[in-house]
Amino acid sequence: MGMKNVLRFFAYGPLSGAFSAAHRVISCGEQMYFALRWKMEGAGKPSQQDACLMRENVTFIYKSFERQRQAEKLYRNIQAYYPGVKVIIADDSKRPLELKDEHVKVIHLPFNSGLSAGLNRALEKVDTPYVIRMDDDELLTPHTHFERHLRFLMTHPEADLVGVLPLSTPKCEPIDRVAGLYYRQPMNDAPRKLRIPHMTPIGDEYVVVGKPANIFIARTEKVREIGYDDRIRMIDHNDFFYRAAGRMVSVLAKDCYVFHDHNRFNRAYQRYRMDVEGDRRYIAQRNYLERMKREAALNQQTGENRSPEAGGNEHDYL
């Protein structure tokens, strides 16, 4: 067993508690470092006018599971940037999230209902024209600029969704390198072509992508139109944008980001987060059957008699 595998064994096994504590210390230090750096750079919070614009038009939604402290921290963080903005949290923790404030609504779901089901229940309660989707292990930064992206959507009807990037601890890679991950995902395997080609620039700050990060602001009705598949517990991200291709236009804000603090050594949480094989099998079978239906419909229209097997098998559609 190589040294890397030995470290992995202890990090995710007998010493996971120690590694988890070390992660928290490192993450806290990084947050303090970036807060000081941003302050020295003159980056600040949105203006009162920006906060008012957000209150009138936007609702934040996120899913919470077994991370009550982080879920509450994100809520306080959102209110620090946009005081009074609406927040809806779908929680399916074993110990229900208890967060009471005039600007938050917590939807309690049965234990381990799943990410997709939680996001759908939260979406049902949104009554603003725009929605922001985040995860409970993220925090807004002075470089997130959701108010700027809201104005972009208000003045660019050709776009439906603006994604921002994750600055992930403990590596905190350069943000242009993080953006490159999404530049390489044109979603060519989706059932529909993108309405605007992948990597088309819109203005100086935005570029069309097939799949941005799962941190975004979007038109509420467009997100509802796509929706999340309740039968997918965890791996909703790729599936959402696979089905959204050709139905909505997503752009990436190239230099905007949130702080992402995912503790990979939290064994209790990771046990559920990594339980995705059922999701993979379901998505593969569903996408395969849908493709067969599309090919059958095309055969009827063209009079061709192509064998469905020529299109591959269900394992090709994960």
> Termini separation (Å)?
31 Å
Radius of gyration: 21 Å
Separate helix tally: 11
Low-confidence stretches: 307-318
Q: Please state the second-level CATH architecture of the largest domain.
A: Alpha-Beta Complex
Give the structural class.
alpha/beta
Q: And the CATH topology of the largest domain?
A: Spore Coat Polysaccharide Biosynthesis Protein SpsA, Chain A
In short:
The chain has 318 residues and is α/β, with parallel strands linked by helices.
Notes on the structure:
The protein contains eleven helices and ten strands. The longest helix is centred in the N-terminal third of the chain and has 26 residues, at 16-41. The protein has helices spanning 3-11, 16-41, 48-57, 68-81, 115-125, 146-155, 175-183, 220-226, 236-244, 267-273, 277-302, and strands spanning 58-64, 86-91, 104-108, 130-135, 138-139, 161-168, 201-202, 206-208, 216-219, 250-260. Strands 1, 2, 3, 4, 5, 6, 7, 8, 9 and 10 form a ten-stranded mixed sheet that branches. It has 318 residues and is an alpha/beta fold. The two termini are 31 Å apart. The chain is globular and about 65 Å long. It folds into two domains: 41-267, Spore Coat Polysaccharide Biosynthesis Protein SpsA, Chain A; 277-317, no CATH class.
